Amino acid sequence: MRHYLYKAILLLGLILGMASAPVSAEEAQRAKLQGTIDAALDVIYADCCASLSDEAKQAKVRQVIEASYDLDVIIRRAIGRNWNLMTAGEQAQVLDLIKQLVLKAYVKGLNGKKRPKVTLGEVTSTSSTRMEIQSTIVLDDKTLYVLYRLREMDSGWQIYDIVAENVSVVSNYREQLDDHFRKGSGAELITRLKELLQKDEINEDTKI
Fold first, then answer.
1. Domain boundaries, the chain
2. Which N-terminal residues, if any, form the signal peptide (predicted)?
3. Which three-class secondary structure state does DSSP give residue 150?
4. Average pLDDT, stretch 18-46?
5. What is the chain's Cα-based Rg?
6. CA–CA separation, 166 vs 182, rounded Å?
């Protein structure tokens, strides 16, 4: 009896030791990102959200993402130096409208398609405050390669760029916004974003 009790104590100690083992920043961020991606996809594909309208799904996906990441970080980087060409009110509106546009494209783009399989791969630390997480996405029998770039900030680890098939989301949007501000204003950008949100067909190819 004492022998079995001793083995049980050893097993319990091993389990507790494993549970308390330190998790690296890379492992923690990969788990966090995978959980966020899965939760966002659940909004679109899980039975619990099947009755929601597209607008409600977009709002819920936004809630899921913003519980883990600050979307302002990646949008501000895309806006770049053009940020200072807008008033504070315009800045707030542009941030919100771009979020709505991206989320609408995300939900609309997956409507009628099978749930994509997202697998996170290698995590590479590029500096003490930056890391990259590789991923593969299988959608409609096509495999896409996406790289998430994260930076440690005062608010925690944040995604500051996404590179899909070697195309940087930040660079792509910054180029479009630079083109706009060469001849347009913050107010005109707001009008343009509102016009885009009224369209039914929005996808990753939609131009600002």
1. 22-197
2. 1-25
3. strand
4. 88
5. 21
6. 26
List, for residues 79-98, the tens digit of each pLDDT value.
999 999 999 999 999 999 99
Which position has the token pair 């590789």? 134
Q: What crossing angle do the helices spanning 88-110 and 186-197 adopt, rounded to 10°?
A: 20
Instruction: Tell me which CATH code domain 22-197 carries.
Output: 3.10.450.710
| Reported pTM | 0.85
pLDDT in tens, 125-163: 999 999 999 999 999 989 999 999 999 999 999 999 999
Whether 162 and 182 have beta carbons less than 8 Å apart is answered as no
CB 23 within 8 A of CB 123: no
d(CA 119, CA 133): 10
Contacts from 111-115 at CB under 8 Å and sequence distance 24+? 111/44, 111/54, 113/139, 113/140, 114/139, 114/140, 115/41, 115/44, 115/45
Q: The sheet that has 142-153: what strands, in order across it?
A: 117-127, 130-139, 142-153, 156-164, 167-168
Closest CA to 135 of 151, 150, 147, 117: 147
Residue 134, Ramachandran bin (φ over 0: left; ψ between -120 and 50: alpha; else beta): beta
Q: How far is CA 54 from CA 45, 46, 115, 195, 197, in A?
A: 12, 14, 16, 18, 13
Query: Does 200 have pLDDT greater than 90?
Result: no
